[in-house]
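so the lab meeting is tmrw and i was supposed to have these ready like two days ago... anyway. pasting both below. for each one the top line is the aa sequence and the line under it is the structure tokens. i havent really looked at them closely yet so no promises
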Amino acid sequence: MLTRARILELLPHQGAMCLLDEVESWSTDDIRCVATRHRDPTHPLRRGGMLAAVHLIEYAGQCAALHGALAASADGRPPIPGLLAAVRDVELFARRLDDIDAPIGIRASRLLGGPGGFMYGFEATASDRLLGRGRFSVILPKRS
């Protein structure tokens, strides 16, 4: 398990914009993270008094970024920042996140990968409730 302090060392997202609080587990193809500050009234993605469920995509993107940083670190390489390029097949089963009492669990699973980028599938839950799922692509910059 990784704590928030270690997550902040690995992600470019800093301060309140780092949405993840801990890593429960990770492997070469999968990462499971936990977020607990979705009820915070000062959450940086909150608009109009609420945190919309569509922001689960950002949570999942940060999980994937963290997964890439952990995998690079395990191989002794520096992490390569990627860009979220496309989102597909997203299904949301909640309207908002700020009214959910339980921690949010986010799982990102690498489906495809190569030198140019990755495709991840994600799923977000709270207790036994499925909040959302989908897929997204991450593009890596060309190396010189």
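ok protien two:
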Amino acid sequence: MSTYSGKSVTLPRPVEEIYAKVSDLGQYKDLVEALPAEQREKLQGVEFEGDCVKMNAPSIGQLVFRISERTAPTHVGFSAEGSPVPLKLSLDLASAGEGSTSLTPKIDLEIPAMLRPFIGGKIQEAADKFGDVFTSLFQ
């Protein structure tokens, strides 16, 4: 598997609070609807439902990431359903000082080495965008 780490983002909440939020996706639907229109637009194509998050992926269609791992308060892992290749997404959390949390998204993807130069940049963009989704939600 190839691992693509997204940019780490710092969220202005304690690690325990962020973990509680990212490990229970059922609460996000109402939260997204309450965001200002500008922030909702950034989340276009992302939908939260139960223990999964659905998103539109260019050239693939809709991907569903279901929570498959929980290690309180530092890690939440998601497995993709409907992906043409084995795909996992994870969020690693760490305290970033008083009342702040560092969140680092990672994508693990099983792709042949010869395809990495062609799609690696898009996968990296996706990893970075995933961090932006949570930044939008917790600002």
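from a quick look at the 2nd one: The mean pLDDT is 87. The chain is about 30% helix and 40% strand. will dig more after coffe
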